[in-house]
Write a structure and sequence with these properties.
Chain lengths: 181, 164
């Protein structure tokens, strides 16, 4: 008799497991596709600087210090939304933020920086998605955390909010900073 | 009064016209030209099997998104250079992950996806088979003599009630 009672609980157990799985599935955002580049060296690039068309920037730029590489464009509303947070992170935490201006035009991009402030130590300029494909960029904003050896440690898809910074990005930045010093 | 009936028709025609004009203005694959027509077929097949990451229910062939256009051009350039289908697919997977493939590869992280349904159906089948076998092995028990007598009594009393 006892055996059949526990047996009767099996469907309930299956239901609970299934419900938990489906509930977990509801929290996932299918637009956020994990990048295969995390844990790998940042891809090579050779792009002009946004401010100075004569200046070429390459992968060397990323070495020696933790950087946030922030993919942005003036046509992207979420980029404007995260702009203040990037300014704050650069100012208050002294994090090097490198801009990756993507599929944009120089004049509008520079205008946006003049209007909203410039959190970037320097900004790459990639209007034709030359390097963007190598970095697996499929939208803006996207932010890569690159360690001092030039290895990608995290990719954040979507705008950086104070919560995203505190919970996801700051721990990684601090981990690689500590290791370096 | 009669004229009113034409309105939905006119509206429908206007709508159809707008939709047709819309598709005609969309992008076409004709900008991608190959010397060998077979290569164009290969190109079209390949980009139909790759997923656009921006609008995830569309293939690279069908998407109007800017990134999809860039990737079409990239695939086109690689094929013009004579790179194989596998080289193109590997190039995209290395950058965007397995997600660009409509057919995910079979590897440990996708085992559940590929084999889960068969395991579930197999498990359910096994349970069903066991249940049937058990029923066959021990058929419903017959009534005891006492129960049979009580049953007769009940039926008899019911018949009496109906006759009243």
């Amino acid at each position: 008799m006892k055996g059949s009672k526990t047996r009767a609980l099996i469907p309930l157990g299956i239901f609970l497991v299934l419900a938990a799985l489906l509930f977990y599935g509801l929290q996932l955002d299918p637009r956020k596709v994990p990048s295969p580049l995390v844990g790998k060296p940042a891809p090579e690039f050779d792009l002009p600087s946004l401010k100075d068309p004569q200046q070429r920037l390459d992968r060397e730029l990323l070495l020696g210090e933790v950087s946030l590489v922030n993919v942005w464009a003036s046509w992207c509303p979420s980029c404007r939304q995260e702009h203040a947070e990037l300014l704050r992170i650069a100012r208050e935490h002294g994090v090097r933020v490198i801009g990756f201006n993507w599929k944009d035009d120089r004049a509008s991009a520079l205008l946006m920086l003049r209007q909203y402030g410039n959190p970037y130590t320097v900004s790459l300029y990639d209007p034709d998605n030359e390097a963007g494909i190598d970095w697996g960029v499929y939208g803006a904003p996207e932010t890569f955390v690159v360690d001092p050896e030039g290895i990608i440690r995290h990719k954040e898809i979507g705008p950086i909010t104070p919560e995203v910074w505190e919970e996801k990005i700051r721990p990684i930045v601090e981990q690689y900073r500590a290791r370096n010093s | 009064m009669k004229r009113r009936h034409h309105r939905p028709l006119l509206a429908g025609m206007a709508l159809a016209g707008a939709l047709l004009a819309g598709t005609a203005q969309g992008y076409t694959l004709e900008e991608f030209t190959f010397e060998d027509p077979n290569q164009f077929e290969d190109f079209r097949d390949l980009i139909s099997e790759l997923r656009c990451l921006v609008c995830q229910n569309e293939s690279l062939a069908g998407s109007q998104a800017g990134v999809a256009q860039d990737l079409r051009e990239e695939v086109y350039a690689m094929m013009r250079e004579g790179q194989s289908r596998k080289e193109v697919v590997d190039f995209l997977v290395a950058r965007y992950g397995d997600f660009v493939l409509y057919d995910p590869p079979i590897k440990p992280s996708t085992y559940i996806l590929w084999f889960g349904p068969f395991v579930l159906v197999g498990g359910a089948g096994l349970l069903l088979w066991r249940a049937i076998r058990r029923k066959k092995a021990e058929p419903e028990q017959d009534l005891t003599a006492d129960e049979r007598a009580r049953l007769q009594q009940l039926i008899a009393s019911r018949d009496d009630e109906q006759r009243d």
